[in-house]
Design goal:
single chain, alpha+beta, 6-stranded mixed sheet, 4 helices, globular
Length: about 160
């Protein structure tokens, strides 16, 4: 492994972590900055009523902004007063100097404890020296019966176009 490979892997780990930190804290600009302009963010292998697919930074921004707008109106999308996504194993494969793939396991905690868990399947691209997510598929393997997020995606999709 070369020094360039190590730096690339650390840049990729950084953007994966920034995505979670920004998402948990509803820092929309920081969240959107993790993606290429033409990025795709989508769920994979989930029930149809909770499936989502957003193409491009602006579509991703619009979706995330709805979460904030609803919270500001006193009707949050989910019932969690905090969310913490924890990243565990991450396998990063450098495809070219400026393209990579990654598979990263995650688990989300809320006030009930473990709420839901799964993994990200990412395609990443280096843009102007920074690694960004070009395509993220979010797969959920498990959710607690009392998950505070169970209705969240369905509610956020129902809001789409209303704001």
């Amino acid at each position: 492994m070369t020094n360039e490979d190590v730096l690339a892997r650390e840049g990729i780990r950084d953007v994966i972590a920034r995505y979670n930190m920004a998402g948990d804290r509803l820092r929309i600009d920081d969240f959107v900055a993790c993606f290429t302009h033409d990025a795709i963010l989508e769920s994979d292998r989930v029930p149809a009523d909770r499936a989502f697919r957003f193409v491009g930074r602006e579509a991703i921004r619009e979706w995330q902004t709805q979460w904030l707008d609803r919270a500001a109106a006193g009707a949050p999308v989910h019932d969690a007063n905090f969310v913490r996504h924890h990243l565990t194993t991450s396998q990063i494969d450098l495809v070219t100097r400026d393209e990579a793939t990654a598979r990263t396991y995650w688990q989300a905690w809320t006030r009930i404890g473990p709420d839901h868990a799964g993994y990200y399947l990412d395609e990443l691209r280096r843009v102007n020296g920074h690694w960004l997510i070009a395509h993220r598929r979010v797969r959920m393997d498990w959710e607690a019966a009392e998950s505070l997020f169970k209705p969240a995606i369905e509610r956020s999709m129902a809001m789409r176009g209303a704001i």
